[in-house]
Specification:
Blueprint lengths: L2 E5 L2 E4 L4 E8 L6 E8 L6 E7 L5 E3 L7 E6 L4 E6 L8 E9 L7 E2 L3 E6 L1
Parallel strand pairs: 2-11
Antiparallel strand pairs: 1-3, 3-8, 4-5, 4-9, 5-6, 7-8, 9-10, 9-11
């Protein structure tokens, strides 16, 4: 089992920045991919970014490219989502998730953290 705990959400003005953290425990994470998803009120959950824990190779949704950066700290078993130039439409609950890197489905999810961007 993998346990994921997010932190770092909050309220920020448009144009501001936040950094989300996702602490992983329970397994050696080297064979996993960590992803970030978000769900806005009345909308479906959508992919934001992911990182292959072994290679560090990132992937981003088009809507966040150039504004968000995903990274990881192997020693701390923690992933990060640096969010810059935030927009009101980024307002959502952000979820950290994990999957085995060779498996497409995310099996492990955090509890979510609220990000609110005011205009």
């Amino acid at each position: 089992q993998v346990q994921l705990v997010e932190s770092g959400g909050g309220l920020v003005q448009a144009g501001g920045s936040l950094r989300l953290s996702c602490a992983a425990s329970g397994r050696t994470f080297s064979t996993y991919t960590m992803g970030w998803f978000r769900q806005a009120p009345g909308k479906e959950r959508e992919f934001v970014a992911s990182i292959n824990w072994s290679s560090g190779w990132p992937a981003y949704a088009d809507s966040v490219k150039g504004r968000f950066t995903i990274s990881r700290d192997n020693a701390k078993n923690t992933g990060y989502l640096q969010m810059n130039s935030l927009k009101p439409e980024d307002t959502a609950v952000f979820y950290c998730a994990a999957r085995k890197s060779l498996v497409p489905r995310y099996d492990y999810w955090g509890q979510g953290t609220q990000v609110t961007v005011s205009s």
